[in-house]
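Researcher: Here's a chain I'd like modeled. Treat it as a single chain, no partners, no ligands.
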Amino acid sequence: MSTREPVKANMRGWVVTALLALFMVINFMDKAILGIVAVPLMQELNIDPAQFGMIASSFFLFFSVSAIGFGFMANRVSSKIVLALLAGIWGLSQLPLAFFASVPLLYFSRILLGIGEGPAYPLALHSCYTWFADDRRNVPSSMIFQGVTAGLLISGPVLTYIMINHSWHAAFLLLGVASMVWMVLWMLFGGDGQVKNSDKGAGAAGDRVPYWVLLTDRSFLANMLLYWTSYWIFSVMFTWIPAYMSKVLGYSAQETGWMFMVFTGVNIPLVFIGSWLSQRMLKRGVASVYARGWLSCVFVLLGGVCILSSLYMVENPTARVLLLALGCNLPQLTFVLSSAIVAEISFDSQRSAAMSISSALATTGGLVAPALIGHLISNSSTLSTGYEQGFMVSAVLAICVSLVGVMFINPEASRRRMQARTIASTAGSTSGSMSVAMREPS
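Model: Modeled as a single isolated chain. Structure tokens:
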């Protein structure tokens, strides 16, 4: 193999990573749009907060099921095909709202969008991991996750501008067209690499363990629970924070758009620094239990503390927004490191399904959180009380789950258990075959 071939492969990997980051930009603008257009949409369709919360939660109705189904599909089908299919579903779900408006159509659109977006993030990372070795995955993974941040970052001013100067329908049109354009670009320039976990992962590429062994592993479960809590907080952020800024803190629609941009922009340095720090620790020989597991837990713990501080330590609206921004964005490091932990303990032949199952279980937090907070808002004596109760629940979850993660997440130990299980199964199969052969007549 010529020296040019690895260089070309490496460059192609970064091109694919850039496309996957753009994929996540569109993905999370799709998620954010409902919160951004919430006020005029609720007024036009005469929707109360409880019903709006149910519409927001309907996005997650088949989100997890879809993530698992497409995850198993991606074990056998190229991500070039699977990701293009997902982008097509996004476009089809958004475009009808550019022309019509009704509560049933909103439910249909969000449910279909959830089906298309449920597998998106784990499969984007799965595709990325085929281009980079285990100890080089954190930074490209964080780039893909920064697509999440960029999507939320620009969705505030861009979608608010379109909503104010045209209509909220036009904002859905923009996102529908963007999904279709990305699908074409991906078919032209996307694809899978050839990097395997080899000795850095749970075992050889062809090895497997029963899925129940993987899914009941304590590192997998604690890691997924940490991810679940982070997704709970994240879904609260993109569903209710814009309305909270507008209705409780008193910002105008345009101010809310820019404030939400700043709010989500806090994520960029936090997640990039956390990802870089984790990768640097790994390269210096620090065990993954600390470089990935404990680091994730620390960020989630600090997030919970910041949310509580915003409720009880400050009264100034700007200071409250700043603390909420830290509280909602610090846990998002988990979105990068949680997937890396699952990939570390999984076999190559099962990685896509394992990551998708973890994501599917974790994102059920997004099914519960928006509806619960909508219920709290509708049944509280004041709007601010309802929001604060929802934020307090989120903070307590973050603090408690981070402590659970410190106790149980240990990727190296889990990897050894997977390898031992495979060796034991192989030895048992070999022994059984030899016994049969010895009993057979010559």
